[in-house]
Amino acid sequence: MPKAPSYSVSAEQTGRAIRTSDYGARYLQGVTVAKDNGTTGFGQVLAGTPMGRITATGKYRPCAKQAISQGATAAALPVSDAACFYVGDAVDVISTLGVVGSVNLVASAGDDTIEVVGRSRDGLAHTVALADPGANDAALGQTVTRAANGVATIQISLATGGDGSISSTVVQVIAELNRGEAGSLVYASLADGDDGTATTTAVDAAALAGGLAPGGTLLTNSTVSAVAKAANPNTVTVGSQITVVSGDVIRARDGSQTARGILDKTQSTYDRHASDLAQSAVYADVSAEIGWVGRYRQSLLPGYDSSLLVDLAGVDLGDDIRI
To answer: Which of 11, 39, 158, 163 has its CA 20 to 30 A from that of 123?
Structure first.
């Protein structure tokens, strides 16, 4: 493919003319496209690339938001297309479905462990306690109270014998946790390798941890250290290992995670000898910080290669783009 003609740009300028796109766009908006993220240059950005607006500068850059393509516990996060991410991007990773919280209770002198997980992906840190009632011949039972914020306190009152000593076994306590109101909030199971026949010991209240409501943040303000755009799958490497599932989202923090339009084939450049020199190109060389973003309706894109819209999957569409 021949390289488009180039023009020297003596100062940063923004294209101003409104013109018709080869794709049949309603109109084009001249914008200033950032040349880099402060660490890595954006280089050549292909036509059809969704573009987002950087909040701090008002400049545009490739829209940096992608769904995680498969589950992983890693720092290198798999995505379907990493083309719009660059080393040095500051990103968040968002849980789309939410995450259930969990806690382990060491419930016997023999270290039998009860694994407790939340029933809902609501981010609520319910607490669970196994209490010695301090009475003779007490029955195994439960008490559940809720705070105004929805967080529940689950207390299992352990059974005792005639001498007041605890008689409940670990498997009996698990059965009690899984019934009634407590069972509607949490699910309890015995850890692998334990038999649960030991007598339970009292356990202080412990809260479910690691839970997130849908839209909660799994990782905040992490710097991208590597981007594998030729690997299968593509990966974006963040600053620490996390657990993600298919459909979670990685997105830039600079505002460009919201698509504001699609980069058009028409590129306008400016220098001190001529104004608004236009050229037809299949990419924009953003080293000059000049570009065009089109606003489109799908019905106005006859023959448009829909594969170019892959980055719009899961993107928060702004008011400035219609597809």
So the answer is: 158
